[in-house]
Amino acid sequence: GDSTSDVIGATAEAARGGATVIVRDIPAERLGEWGKALGVDLKAMDVGEIYQGVKAKDDPLLAGISNEDLSGAESWTYWHGKNHIVAGVALAPATGIEPLVETATRSCLRELFPYEGKSETLRMPFVSRVYFSGVPGPAVLVARVRLGSGVVLINQFVPKPDSHPRLMRVTNRIMANLGTVAAGSPLDGESV
User: Fold this and answer.
1) pLDDT tens digits, residue range 24-79?
2) Kind and range of the H or E element at 174?
3) Which CA distances in Å does 175 have to 29, 108, 140, 181?
4) How far is CA 27 from CA 51, 89, 177, in A?
5) What whole-number distance in Å separates Cα of residue 127 and Cα of residue 129?
6) Cα 71 to chain center, whole Å?
7) Residue 55: CB atoms within 10 Å
8) Cβ distance 67 to 103 under 8 Å?
């Protein structure tokens, strides 16, 4: 097979043998292949542009990560910050995929701030449109898949390199919580 297929197979085999493996930013066209290797139904879920994640549950793996750390919305009312997309491909929930970070379903931050609906005259129409058009269920951004005696962590929360440094802390904190040393410091990023 090609080198990507070899990596996918080796990753699954390592997890079956007891390793914890992190896989980042799986492209949509490779989800089926990854899903087959991991024994789960990995599919993309279209929820539009993703500016925000939220913790799906309290988990030691997410220690030191707040919902603020998972939000790329920065253009608050009376403030013109830059908004950051935090993920490209979100995963559909499925059996065997344990969500750790999901897309926000009870928030209109994307519509109010990145989509410029924050003014007094636009706020209510924007929020009404979101809730009356049907809010999609949560999509998965960080997941744990148990495989054999090990674990594969799928991290789709991958902000672009020019994003706010705070967003880069998420992967570093996950690595630190696993007991590994990430490139740079687990505290990289600005304080909030």
Assistant:
1) 999 999 999 999 999 999 999 988 778 788 899 999 999 999 988 888 776 555 56
2) helix 165-177
3) 26, 30, 19, 7
4) 18, 7, 25
5) 5
6) 10
7) 17
8) no
From its phi and psi, is residue 118 left (phi > 0), alpha (psi between -120 and 50) or beta?
Answer: alpha
Rounded to whole angstroms, the Cα distance separating 187 from 176 reads 9
Single-letter amino acid code for the residue at 171: T
d(Cα 118, Cα 177) in Å, to the nearest integer? 36
Sequence-distant (6+) residues with CB within 8 A of 8 are 30, 33, 34, 37
* Alpha carbons 71 and 170: distance in angstroms, whole number: 11
Beta strands in 33-178 (DSSP E): 53-55, 98-103, 140-147, 150-155
pTM equals 0.80
Select from 3, 115, 145 the least CA-distant residue to 51: 115
Q: Which amino acid, one-letter code, is at 56?
A: A
> Are 174 and 187 a contacting pair, CB within 8 Å?
no
